[in-house]
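for the recovery benchmark. tokens below, seq after
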């Protein structure tokens, strides 16, 4: 899974990645807006300039492993 996120300001990050968005919420980052773009929802968070660190932390987290296993199990249903 890739973290497809882009920065709109030094203290904001916008992403359409549901797992990354859930991770940011779980870590206590504030969701400041959500927008619909075609068939995607974009989530914007206030991350206090920690964008790159958060992306790396997410990729290395057990949360991502959990999310991938959940997706795999859903495919079996």
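predicted aa per position
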């Amino acid at each position: 899974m890739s973290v497809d996120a882009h920065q709109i300001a030094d203290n904001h990050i916008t992403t359409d990645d549901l797992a990354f968005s859930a991770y940011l919420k779980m870590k206590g980052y504030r969701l400041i807006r959500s927008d619909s773009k075609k068939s995607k929802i974009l989530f914007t968070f206030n991350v206090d300039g920690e964008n790159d660190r958060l992306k790396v932390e997410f990729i290395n987290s057990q949360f991502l492993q959990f999310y991938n296993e959940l997706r795999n199990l859903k495919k079996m249903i």
